[in-house]
Inverse folding.
């Protein structure tokens, strides 16, 4: 799930247990993958992903944008949402994950990996890193996410990350010519309790 929506969280500086001082990148570092803040130079690859139906899978609306449109969207992205490139330790880029503000000023996450890197635990680790970052750096009480009722792999990612199923939001997403039911998941701060991967509180 890779949804870029309007949000109102105050901007934060990305700074975690590992800071890449050689090129100024801000990185959230995990055991098998890192989350690196998207940059303008990434938009060529992102546009290729977004225009590939396999990247979206069968559960989300298809989206076609030119590189120019993707770059324009990047330039106008609200400062209160952040998107990261998911990178393996060898530097290969395998997808994206991020957060935004949903209805009711609630923090929501979305994610998507390229098809041949799914089912290997990378997305679950990326989600755990992002949840750690959000609870460590922001005064929030919950993080949520939506996924198609038929999207079992995405549901497993959320459940392994500690999210709880709240219920079904009926006919809440229009995709591929039909209205689809979505499952609402959330994790509360008291359920998260402590960082699962990040070892230091991000400096802001």
């Amino acid at each position: 799930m890779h949804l870029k929506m309007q949000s109102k969280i105050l901007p934060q500086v990305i700074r975690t247990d590992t800071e890449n001082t050689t090129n100024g990148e801000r990185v959230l570092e995990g055991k098998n993958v890192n989350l690196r803040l998207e940059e303008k130079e990434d938009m060529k690859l992102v546009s290729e992903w977004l225009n590939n139906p396999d990247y979206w899978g069968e559960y989300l609306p298809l989206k076609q944008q030119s590189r120019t449109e993707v770059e324009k969207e990047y330039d106008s992205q609200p400062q209160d949402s952040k998107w990261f490139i998911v990178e393996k330790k060898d530097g290969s880029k395998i997808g994206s994950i991020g957060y935004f503000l949903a209805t009711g000023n609630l923090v929501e996450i979305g994610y998507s990996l390229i098809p041949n890197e799914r089912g290997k635990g990378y997305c679950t680790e990326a989600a755990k890193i992002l949840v750690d970052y959000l609870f460590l750096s922001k005064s929030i009480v919950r993080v949520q996410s939506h996924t198609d009722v038929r999207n079992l792999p995405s549901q497993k990612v959320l459940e392994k990350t500690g999210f709880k199923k709240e219920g079904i939001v009926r006919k809440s997403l229009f995709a591929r010519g039909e209205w689809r039911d979505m499952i609402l998941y959330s994790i509360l701060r008291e359920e998260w309790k402590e960082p699962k991967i990040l070892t230091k509180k991000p400096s802001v």
